[in-house]
Amino acid sequence: xxxxxxxxxxxxxxxxxxxxxxxxxxxxxxxxxxxxxxxxxxxxxxxxxxxxxxxxxxxxxxxxxxxxxxxxxxxxxxxxxxxxxxxxxxxxxxxxxxxxxxxxxxxxxxxxxxxxxxxxxxxxxxxxxxxxxxxxxxxxxxxxxxxxxxxxxxxxxxxxxxxxxxxxxxxxxxxxxxxxxxxxxxxxxxxxxxxxxxxxxxxxxxxxxxxxxxxxxxxxxxxxxxxxxxxxxxxxxxxxxxxxxxxxxxxxxxxxxxxxxxxxxxxxxxxxxxxxxxxxxxxxxxxxxxxxxxxxxxxxxxxxxxxxxxxxxxxxxxxxxxxxxxxxxxxxxxxxxxxxxxxxxxxxxxxxxxxxxxxxxxxxxxxxxxxxxxxxxxxxxxxxxxxxxxxxxxxxxxxxxxxxxxxxxxxxxxxxxxxxxxxxxxxxxxxxxxxxxxxxxxxxxxxxxxxxxxxxxxxxx
Length: 461
Ligand code: MN
Ligand code: MN
Known about the structure:
The chain is of the alpha/beta class.
C-alpha cells in the first residue's frame, strides 16, 4: 500500500530529509552571502547600490543608451533606474524575438518615511513625523530601535546621503509607547487603533539650544543636522528619509536553521535572482533580472514595475531587429516574491493542505489576490507544469502554496503587471513568518532552494 501511495499521492518531505551533506554546505555558503548583502541593504536605494557592486564584479556593464544592435550572447549589461530599481541582463544564444526569461523581485519594504515637514517640538522634546510606507501593523513599530537612511536633494542639484544608526556607536531612534501601568484605555482598543499613524513620531532629541525662547530643542536638533549634513529645515521638503528597524541580520534557532532580519520581503528573492543571474554565462534565452521598487504601494511610479522603463530596457536588448511586443509574447516570467509560511501559532488563518511550510522549499503560487482570486495573475496550468518540470530536473525542492485561507485576506505581487504585458508569469518565492514585521523570519533551506529555482529558470526556462 505504501508503494501505491508513493506512486499516486502528492507527498511532500521536509527538505532536510531530502538533501545530502554537500548540499548543506552549499546552502550555508549561499545564506552567508545573502545575509551579508541584506545587512548592507536597508532601503531600496541601498539594495540597488549593493547589487550594482556585485554585478560589476561579475562583469556586468552599464547599458549604453546610445547602443545599436541587439544584446550579444554572453553580454552582461545593467540599467540602474534612478538608483531605486535595477534591471540586469545576460544575452542568450537565441534571438530576442524568441523571447527572454525574466525574474522580477522587489527591493522596497514596509517602513516609516519621514513627512516632508517632519521636525517639531513638544514639551521640550524634538520629534520627526512619519507617514508609513506599505502594509504595517503599526503597534509593531513602537519601542524598537530605528535607523534613519536616505537622501536629501538640495536645490543646487547635489544630493546628501544620510545614514544614522548603522555604525556601532551611532545613535539610534525610537517611537515611544505607553507603559502598561497607564495603558488601561489603550489596551481596550483594537490592534489597528492601539497606535495610530499620526502617533508614529520618532524621538529625535531632548537637549535645548542655549539661550532663551521657544523651540530650543528643535533648534538644537536642526543645528546638529546642519553641522553633519549642511542641511536646513526646508531641505526636508526634498528628502526621502526612511526610518527602518535597526536589527542586525541574525541566524535564528539553536540549530541556526533560520534567518531573522528586516526587509526579507522581498530582498530574499531579489538576492536569489541576483545570485542566479551572476552565474548565467551563456543561457539559451536572454536572462533578465529585475529588482523593482514600489511594489509595496502598488508597483507605481517610474521605478515601479508598471513603469515603461522596463519596455525601454527590453527595447534596447532587442535592437532594431525585433519588436518588444513580440519578444514579450514569447517570454517567461517568474515573479519572485515571498509568500506566507504556515505559522503553527496561528493555524486558523491557513488551510494546511495548501499552505507553505518552513523547510519545504521554494513556494509556487499559481495565484495570489483576495476574495475569489481578485487581483491575481493566475498562471496557466501549462505554466505551472513547466516550472514543476524545470525544478524537478534541477533537483529543486519546491512546494505548491496559497497565501492563507479562502476569504481570510490576501495579497498581490508584480505578477499581474508582467502578465498585462502579455508575458506568461508565475509567482514563486520564499515562505516567510511574521511577514511585514520589523523582524521577519525565513528558513535557510527555503532561501537556498529559491536561489536554485531561479538558477534553473535562467538555465532552462
Ligand atoms: Mn513582496
Ligand atoms: Mn510585501
